[in-house]
Amino acid sequence: MNGRNIYKLAQKLWPYNRSLAGEENRKTLKILRKVNPKLKIIEFKSGQKVYDWQVPDEWNVKDAWIKNKLGKKIIDFKKNNLHLVNYSIPIKKKIQTKELKKKIYSLKNKPNAVPYVTSYYEKNWGFCMSFNDLKKLKEKNYFVNINSKFKKGSMSVGEIIIPGKSSKQILISTYICHPSMANNELSGPCLSIYLSKWIMKKKRKYTYRFVFLPETIGSITYIKKNFRTLKKNVISGLNITCVGDHKNYSFLPSRKGNSILDKIIIEVFRKNKIKFKKYDWKSRGSDERQYCWPNTDLSVSSLMRSKYHEYPEYHSSLDNLKNLVTSKGLGTSFNIYKKVIKLLENKDFPISTTFCEPMLSKLNLYPKIGNNNKINKLKIKSKIILNILSYCDGSNSVEEISSKCDLSVNKCKKILNFLVKKKLVKII
Q: Residue 271, SS3?
């Protein structure tokens, strides 16, 4: 399990025309399942209503091109699937150049790049080409053909659940809805599937839930289907995307910014003296949007290399396995994720079992005669205990609680062990 293996998997998955739903997504999940046979493929029927959204029809493409009058293809979907606007409707006709140019997308500021464009929820069609190639369209007419098909099928989602000693779960999510792009797409699922395989070989305190799904509609649908289970069990999570280049790290914390994994990621960076750029919640852009939405609130963060929207190759043909993503980048990202999981597994997060303060006098931990003028050891001890308990909300580690309470870690652990025995605290 190293960067070279992850990179080879990305090469294998590169040609597939992934989207929201269709055969190419299914094929992608089947290839990921060869790496980890525990991956289960779940299907959600087209047309199914999920909150304010709807599961889309499948979209499959056989071919798409633009030809000149000599029959030469000036755009060929089979050579680069980014040439076709994602979810384009079928069309076959002769078209004037003036009209055709209205259906072609390019990037003037990146004249050699083919942009990635979608029309998921609006029936439309179009092509993408480099700005330099667009300038070469001089003929009066061209012939366009899009051999695509929509059908009432299903949207495919991959899931791996790796049981631990605790039923409390760490959610790890990545997406499989982009066609041939390396950092913004393939780095995430390729690293995630190898991370799941690595975790399976380790002793685990926590249960790990991996999901591989189409961005936005996939996470919304998965949340809808599993809401009660997720709310009951997930204590923190990671959205894995943009982990393939070898530039500095980027970190987008969860909405509240103080989740278990938010803190652990910062600790890993600092302990290993790794440079990183921290973004705030307003800079979000991937599935953390759904997992951290107020009524969902699953505390999911994103640990990336070059963050989506922020690097020049983003959403274009420049985001490829030759130009941007490397074995080294994938390998070092993989190692950082392993460090995060190792540190997580080595920490305890106490949580109080009571509503409001417990009655410590029942345990002979608080004076039974109230006298504010008299200071004694029991009062001092009870104050320390109540301070510790007040931070036992499941998001603070033992080390954090000891720091907040101005205690040594050993003394804090000793008191917490006592509180566990008295069933005032449990460890998650």
A: helix
Burial 252-287 (b: 16+ CB within 10 A, else e): bbbbeeebbbbbbbebbbeeeeeebeebeeeebbbb
The answer to whether residue 67 scores a pLDDT higher than 70 is yes
Which residues partner with 237 through β-bridges? Answer: 171, 300
Asked if 358 and 389 touch (Cβ cutoff 8 Å), the reply is yes
pLDDT tens across 245-300, in order? 989 999 999 999 999 999 999 999 999 999 999 999 999 999 999 999 999 999 99
Q: What is the pLDDT of residue 2?
A: 87
Judge if 184 and 320 occupy the same domain. yes
Structure tokens at 15: 């040609």
Q: CA angle 338-180-129, nearest 5°?
A: 145
Mean pLDDT of the chain: 95
How many domains are there within the chain? Answer: 3
Percent of residues in the chain assigned helix, strand, coil, to nearest 5: 35, 25, 40
Longest Cα–Cα distance of the chain, Å, equals 101
Q: Are 250 and 309 contained in the same domain?
A: yes
Q: In Å, how far from its chain's centre is CA 31?
A: 19
Domain of residue 231, residue span: 3-56+154-345
* C-alpha closest to that of 291 among 165, 166, 175: 175
**Contact between 124 and 85 (Cβ < 8 Å):** yes
Per-residue pLDDT tens for 205-252? 999 999 999 999 999 999 999 999 999 999 999 999 999 998 999 999
Identify the helix (H) or strand (E) that includes residue 169: strand 169-175
Provide the token pair at 359.
Answer: 């009655």
Q: How far apart are CA 409 and CA 60, in angstroms?
A: 58
Where does residue 355 rank: exposed (0-12), middle (13-18), buried (19+ CB within 10 A)?
exposed
First to last CA, the chain: 29
Same domain for 317 and 184?
A: yes
